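Hello,

Our lab assistant flagged a job as stuck in the queue for most of the afternoon. It eventually completed. Since we weren't sure the result was trustworthy after the delay, we are filing this so someone can double-check. Below is the sequence as submitted and the structure that was eventually returned. Let us know if re-running is recommended.
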Amino acid sequence: MPGRAGPRRPRRGNRGALFVIAVLLGSSGLIRIGTGAGHALANATVAETVEAAPDGPVCEPDAGALAMLEDLRAREARLAAREAQVEDRSQALTLAKTEIDEKLAALVAAEDKLAATLALADQAADQDVARLVAVYEKMKPKEAAPLFAEMDPDFAAGFLARMRPDTAAAVMAGLDPKAAYTISVLLAGRNANAPKN
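-- returned structure --
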């Protein structure tokens, strides 16, 4: 039967399968068109419903909820006002701190200048006293003794404490014994009250 050529018979099983596939595809298309139209119809209905909604509120709010809302709004306003006050106070404090820092710096500068002036004055006074001590040391003890006798004992003791010991001794020898004793007591007690530590 290999060489047999003859008319072919058409197969009928293929036509039935093609028909079933065509029916399924057609019904699938109809279903898709039907569901799409359903969505389109539903969207149109929703749009009509939204457009037809009343202008007023749908439900009346509770009076307690309205009071609470008003309380919250009032509290928010108070907090905003308080926050503004705190911000203003913070700015005022910053400004005051800046002014205080500037004044403090000016005071420190003035204090330094005053300390320098006082140091200069003390140095000048020490130089004047040292010069006067040198003058008294160059005087003859017999000429210096009457001057020291006329001075206040504290003042005389201050000069004698700065003089060389041999010159101070010669001047003390020329003084009245009572004046010399008073000056000696003052010289001995000059540093008695100085701190020990």
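-- support follow-up --
The delay was a queue issue, not a problem with the job. The result is valid. The chain has a mean pLDDT of 83. The chain has six helices and no strands.
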